[in-house]
């Protein structure tokens, strides 16, 4: 790795940090998070909705297969 040239004492702490090395802006907090703290974050209910839909779909498919087996036998 190539070392930088010696800098004078005045510019020693100014740094050469590129804009893409900086972190982004902090996420904006909601009023509930501001008042109640970090525990007031919204819960992710999308996961449970997907699980419920999959379970109900499998139950419906099982009922259709059971109905066909009973009808055809």
Topology overview:
Elements lengths: L30 H6 L9 H27 L1
Which descriptors apply to this entry?
single chain; 2 helices; 73 residues; mainly alpha
SSE series: HH
Helix content range of the residues, please?
40-55%
Structural class: mainly alpha
**Rounded radius of gyration (Å):** 30 Å
Tell me how many strands there are. 0
Distance N to C terminus: 77 Å
What low-confidence regions span 5 or more consecutive residues with pLDDT below 50?
A: none
Number of helices: 2
Major sheet: none
Describe this structure in words.
With 73 residues, the protein is an all-alpha fold. The chain is built from two helices and no strands.
Could you give a quick summary of the protein structure above?
The protein is 45% helix and 0% strand. It has 73 residues and is mostly helical.
